[in-house]
Amino acid sequence: MEDTGRITRLYQAITEASSEREPPFRDRPIEERRAYLRERARAYRAKGKASAESGRLEARGGTIRDALADAALILLASGAPGSDAIERLLGIAFSGRPGVPGTVRAKARAGAIKPKILTPEVLRDATSPSPDIPPADRHRRRVACKPPCVSE
């Protein structure tokens, strides 16, 4: 019988705690839900804007697509390996318009289509040597030894 009393007290405590909580989101009035969703969307956009201004983009669908599009433009403009595949894919995407891949390539080379994220300034800053970052081959330490020398 003592267990029944404990279970009853536990049940009462749980029901009292749950009655003090706000109703679930789906049970709230429609205007309250809309206001909440507006505020969440505003906060989401503000966070994305703040991260873009700080130079650290959020990995979201739109920014990922923009970065991939910029990479494709850079490959097309430079004629780097992979540019042929991009042209073929453009041909598939615009199958009814056979001149689109060549036009896009020409516009990319002429600089008429500008990247959104991977701008020349961003690429220059990312690839320029910095005194804080050692060159790629500096990770090996040269050891003074008799020939043949071995690097560690």
List the helices and strands and how they pair.
Blueprint: H1 2-20, H2 30-53, H3 61-78, H4 83-93, H5 100-110, H6 120-127
Kindly provide the radius of gyration, computed on alpha-carbon positions and rounded to a whole number of angstroms: 29 Å
Average of pLDDT: 82
Low-confidence stretches: 136-145
Q: How can the largest sheet be summarized?
A: none
Query: How would you describe the shape?
Result: elongated
Tell me the span between the first and last alpha carbons.
75 Å
Number of helices: 6
Beta-strand content bin: under 5%
How many structural units, i.e. domains? 2
- The H-and-E topology, N to C, reads as HHHHHH
Range of helix content:
55-70%
Question: What is the structural class?
Answer: mainly alpha
Strands, total number:
0
If you had to describe this structure to a student in words, what would you say it looks like?
It is elongated, with a radius of gyration of 29 Å. It is built from 6 helices and no strands. 5% of the residues are buried. With 152 residues, it is an all-alpha fold. The chain starts with a helix and ends in a 25-residue tail after the last helix.
What's this, in brief?
The chain has 152 residues and is mainly alpha-helical. It contains six helices and no strands.
Question: Key features?
Answer:
single chain; mainly alpha; 152 residues
